[in-house]
TrEMBL record:
<dbReference type="InterPro" id="IPR008183">
    <property type="entry name" value="Aldose_1/G6P_1-epimerase"/>
</dbReference>
<dbReference type="GO" id="GO:0005737">
    <property type="term" value="C:cytoplasm"/>
</dbReference>
<feature type="active site">
    <location>
        <position position="257"/>
    </location>
</feature>
<feature type="active site">
    <location>
        <position position="155"/>
    </location>
</feature>
<dbReference type="GO" id="GO:0030246">
    <property type="term" value="F:carbohydrate binding"/>
</dbReference>
<dbReference type="InterPro" id="IPR014718">
    <property type="entry name" value="GH-type_carb-bd"/>
</dbReference>
<dbReference type="InterPro" id="IPR025532">
    <property type="entry name" value="G6P_1-epimerase"/>
</dbReference>
<dbReference type="InterPro" id="IPR011013">
    <property type="entry name" value="Gal_mutarotase_sf_dom"/>
</dbReference>
<dbReference type="GO" id="GO:0005975">
    <property type="term" value="P:carbohydrate metabolic process"/>
</dbReference>
<dbReference type="Pfam" id="PF01263">
    <property type="entry name" value="Aldose_epim"/>
</dbReference>
<keyword id="KW-0413">Isomerase</keyword>
<dbReference type="GO" id="GO:0047938">
    <property type="term" value="F:glucose-6-phosphate 1-epimerase activity"/>
</dbReference>
<protein>
    <recommendedName>
        <fullName>Putative glucose-6-phosphate 1-epimerase</fullName>
        <ecNumber>5.1.3.15</ecNumber>
    </recommendedName>
</protein>
<comment type="similarity">
    <text>Belongs to the glucose-6-phosphate 1-epimerase family.</text>
</comment>
Amino acid sequence: MKSLITQTTFHGLPAIQVRTADGAEATVSLFGGQVLHWQPAGGRPWLYLSEQSAFDGKHAIRGGVPVCFPQFAAQGDLPRHGLVRTRPWRLIDQREVDKQVMLTLGIDSDDDTLALWPHLFALELTINIGGARLDMELEITNTGPDAFGFSAALHTYLRVGEVEMAELHGLKGLRYADACDGGTIKTDPMDMLRVDDPVDRIYADARRPLLLDDSGRHLQIEKENFPDVVVWNPWEAGAAALADLPDRDFRRMLCVEAAATAPIMLAADAQWWGRQSLIVGD
């Protein structure tokens, strides 16, 4: 059996649907260059997607894996999370290798981005889908004559059965900035993180793999070259304040993001890359 790769629309937006030869599934939106759905072979979906997202080709899609560049969150003068999650990407390549599907998407600077941020860039997002894993690699190229600084993230919304029961392991002993406490720097003393209040943390220099235990099903979260991990859940009041998130859906999602939140300097003609892997465990 061969893998199926279909160019289609999803809620009216151009998208690519994938079903690999071994039964894994994914939906990737060309608006925002965003993985919206991933279901490993023989398993259940692992990405959260809000049913109240606008899907209007103007506003960011709430869920999946948005790409943040060249700004993380509101840490600058650009639109929140930067310039590329609300713009059209293009499909550069698609292929099947050993029952897995690899898609490469791209986006370049243009007059609209230059009006907001005066730097030339080219981004490629390579997505590998197959079996029990989803791999995403973001490559950033400075195509202009001058160096620039950027931050970036793969803003991953994970689907959980009940966030208060989910356990995130691997953060013990790491220092983090707590945005829910004015950015205070703290050290995590806990063997696992359980969410029972709003959480908005940037864990710096978080190099080791994480493990999410979602009431007995397990997901290993690995990354390369992204120095930080961001953990976010808006909780009840925060969800109610977001028009594109159902009030109760804070219980169904937990953002665990591969990120580079401090500016990275990129010389002219230079490249930077960062990778995130989601791997289903026993």
